[in-house]
Amino acid sequence: MSSLTLAQLHPGDSATIVTIHAEEALHQRLQALGMRSGKRVELIRQAGFSGPLQVRIGTTDVMLRRNEAKKVTVCKA
After folding, report:
1. Domain of 9: which CATH number?
2. DSSP assignment letter at 71
3. Which residue range is the domain that position 19 belongs to?
């Protein structure tokens, strides 16, 4: 199992959230969206030119900026 950030995944990859290294406001927002340690996430697609990432948590799709995705450490199964 390798540890990397959500921003390093490729479309179609699934991983488990290990931890979120973000300031309090962003941390709370990500948790409100369902991002918690132990949750499975799947990268659906990446917008070009450093655009946002579409991430699926359970049945919910979330758009994240790349700099936000870099703060979420995941473990690829």
Report:
1. 2.30.30.90
2. T
3. 2-76
Question: Mean pLDDT throughout 3-21?
Answer: 95
Is residue 20 a contact partner of residue 69, using CB atoms and an 8 Å limit? no
How many structural domains comprise the chain? 1
Residue among 64, 62, 74, 63 nearest 21 (CA): 74
pLDDT (tens digit, 9 = 90+) per residue, 28-37? Answer: 999 999 999 9
What is the distance, to the nearest Å, from the Cα of residue 5 to the centroid of all Cα atoms in its chain? 7
Q: What is the pTM of this model?
A: 0.91
Q: Of 74, 65, 62, which is closest to residue 36 (Cα–Cα)?
A: 74
Q: Which residues make beta-bridge pairs with 4?
A: 74
